[in-house]
Amino acid sequence: MAGKFWREAASLMVVGRAANLNSKVASRDFEVLLLKRSQKSSFFANSYVFPGGVTEPADFSESWMDVFEKCGYKSSNLETEFRSKSPLPPIFNKSYPILSEVGFRIGAIREAFEECGLLLAQDFPFRDLSKHQLSEWQHAVHKDGSQFLKMFQELGGCPAIRSLYEWTTWLTPAHRLARRFDTAFFITFMDKIPPIIVDNKEIVDIKALTPQETLKQFGRQTLHLPPPQIYELGRLLNFDSYEDLEKFARERNKKGMEQLFPTVIMASDGVITTLPGDDLYPEEPDYNGEGEPIVTPETMEELRRQVKNLHRMEMKPGNDVNIIINISPRYCHVAPNVNSMKLLKNKL
Questions:
Q1: pLDDT at res. 1
Q2: Residue 253: pLDDT band by 50, 70, 90 thresholds?
Q3: Torsion region of 256: left, alpha or beta (phi above 0 gives left; psi -120 to 50 gives alpha)
Q4: Are 78 and 114 in contact (CB under 8 A)?
Q5: Whole-model pTM over 0.90
Q6: What is the mean pLDDT of residues 135-151?
Q7: Can you tell me whether residue 219 is helix, strand or coil?
Q8: What whole-number distance in Å separates Cα of residue 192 and Cα of residue 195?
Q9: What is the dihedral sign for C-alpha 20, 23, 29, 35?
Q10: How, if at all, do strands 270-274 and 263-267 pair?
Q11: Residue range 234-239: average pLDDT?
């Protein structure tokens, strides 16, 4: 029995206005923060990913309510502002001491602080803390996630949960990786991504690049991206401006989050991961990896021609990845901009 269990996680897509970029001539005027995982990492080693990681029990502690109340929140306010009326994936439907939509936001913010020192907070006494003091808190949180709560209890302020918008969730496919995660993705915006210090432990490099440049470098094999990052960067290619993307994220917030659980097909010339809505996507996906992987002598193109509805990623060695989708995304989302991705590939 392979991969029966997975852990809950939270990830944060940090979007900033592009530095030293003339928006009148550039195709996009925003950048996305990417962190390179160490080669010792047990999950996507040497890959560039969005900040994020496993959630901690302390992210869902009832003690956060006291912290938020000091920032002007009330329990009823949190329920009204963050409880989604639209369908949410299973990761949000478990019983937690606080609202799950709040707890996962706290987890995403904590992980960003822990991994690269980026702290999204409101009413926090930044001016009263030296870089050394803030770094000490970062190291403390890295060792013990509950220290994130303690930091706000002692210093004041609260995590800037209002600045995080719902995006989607990804569940690691069965059979492909030993460790699996069900990850809630959020997106946030800031005028400028501040200087970030790499700890050279879990994270060994950072980049702030436009989605276009990131995917170009991936195609040139100068950086590696996991499939969720490729897919989500492809979505961002639909937006030419920071303002347009921020408006879309804000207006789409609370309209629903889809769980993207790829199911793997080993074709004769590569690997296909089908996604919900594809005609080859199983009616009852093998979430626990209890069955055998699907292996077929057919090529990816032959399998593509057999069906009408397509929502899949086709992967070959050498960072050769194609996203194919001809269905409408759920919950008012956008599909990856396949045409722009093809143009990028053709220019390599």
A1: 38
A2: very high
A3: left
A4: no
A5: yes
A6: 95
A7: helix
A8: 9
A9: negative
A10: antiparallel
A11: 97
